[in-house]
Amino acid sequence: MFRYVGAAVVTGLVATAWIVVLPPSPVGQPIAFPHARHQGLTCTVCHRGAATTARAGIPGAAVCAKCHSTIPGRATTATAGREPPIAWVQVTHVPDHVMFSHRRHVTIAKLDCESCHGRIRDRTAPLGAAPMRLEMKTCLSCHSREGAAEDCAACHR
Ligand code: HEC
Ligand code: HEC
Ligand code: HEC
Ligand code: HEC
Ligand code: HEC
């Protein structure tokens, strides 16, 4: 009897370790967007909210249409205005119980995008997974270095 319980516990632990260790599977993005071909642009031309709001935002077809008469990888014309929004998949997340504001970090703390997202500008393919994992300890180690808030209520609701 105990042998079976032991085996069940071990199987459970192995299964849990497996789930924890496995990286999240890469998502497929709808268009093969290359950051590397857009290096001349300031990040906020496309990620418009990053300096002024909580969310950076991922650009829709209207932004692409400023330069592309047809969006590479899409059949219809960008200027038609009737096509569905581009279904980009957000890959960097904090859970709902965490408060995060881009404006606070980009405009007030004057941090580079790279300090939290790594080097995006050289990427030739879209992101299938978060380029940097933003865990609580990542936030806290910078906060402690920079003298920013470390109390639980600053980040958690
Ligand atoms: C202090 C760390 C930090 C900095 C600096 C930062 N980001 Fe982020 N970024 C995050 C976190 C955390 C998330 C996930 C937020 C969420 O769960 O919605 C995120 C999400 C994003 C997203 C996808 C979701 C969204 O917000 O719309 C984009 C795009 C993005 N960041 C772009 C940028 C750009 C561009 C810059 C520089 C102008 C920048 N970030 C600077 C931490 C940072
Ligand atoms: C400010 C102008 C500008 C904006 C805005 C812009 N692009 Fe581009 N894009 C370019 C330029 C310039 C190139 C490089 C063309 C080349 O290398 O021949 C390019 C190249 C590309 C390529 C590679 C094309 C190929 O033949 O390899 C793709 C895909 C692409 N853009 C998609 C997009 C999408 C999707 C958006 C909107 C989210 C967008 N672009 C927004 C200017 C822009
Ligand atoms: C021409 C528009 C354009 C420019 C300029 C641009 N991006 Fe993006 N960015 C996109 C698009 C479209 C996506 C979604 C597809 C992908 O992952 O490449 C994206 C995705 C991202 C993501 C992933 C968001 C997430 O879900 O986690 C980050 C981070 C990011 N960009 C940062 C940057 C930074 C930093 C710069 C400046 C160096 C920059 N971007 C410049 C269009 C742009
Ligand atoms: C690279 C450094 C860095 C990283 C990483 C970072 N922060 Fe910050 N954060 C700062 C700085 C500096 C400030 C102070 C800005 C100011 O003066 O308001 C700040 C301020 C804040 C504030 C406002 C605190 C207050 O006083 O009310 C919150 C909330 C916050 N950060 C959440 C986060 C979360 C959540 C993460 C991780 C996902 C994170 N930060 C990652 C540097 C960072
Ligand atoms: C600077 C921002 C920040 C501060 C301060 C902070 N947390 Fe967090 N916390 C986070 C982020 C971001 C996550 C999500 C981590 C992830 O998704 O991996 C998190 C996750 C958690 C979780 C969920 C379990 C986990 O590890 O994912 C708990 C519980 C938690 N925090 C408790 C606390 C307590 C208690 C304090 C005060 C001692 C605190 N946090 C202070 C940013 C912060």
Can you summarize the main beta sheet?
A: none
Radius of gyration computed on alpha carbons: 21 Å
Query: Any low-confidence stretches, pLDDT <50, length ≥5?
Result: 1-23
Helix content: 25-40%
Structural class: mainly alpha
Query: What compounds are bound to the protein?
Result: heme C
- Count of helical stretches: 7
Number of domains: 1
The shape, in one word, is: elongated
Summarize the structure.
The protein is an all-alpha fold. It is built from 7 helices and no strands.
What does this structure look like?
This protein has 157 residues and is an all-alpha fold. It has one domain (27-155). Helices cover 34% and strands 0% of the residues. The structure holds heme C (5 copies). Residues 31-34, 37-38, 41, 46, 59, 63-64, 66-68, 71-73 line the site of one heme C.
Offer a few descriptive terms.
mainly alpha; 34% helix; elongated
Write the layout of secondary structure elements.
Blueprint: H1 2-21, H2 43-46, H3 61-64, H4 102-108, H5 114-117, H6 136-146, H7 152-155
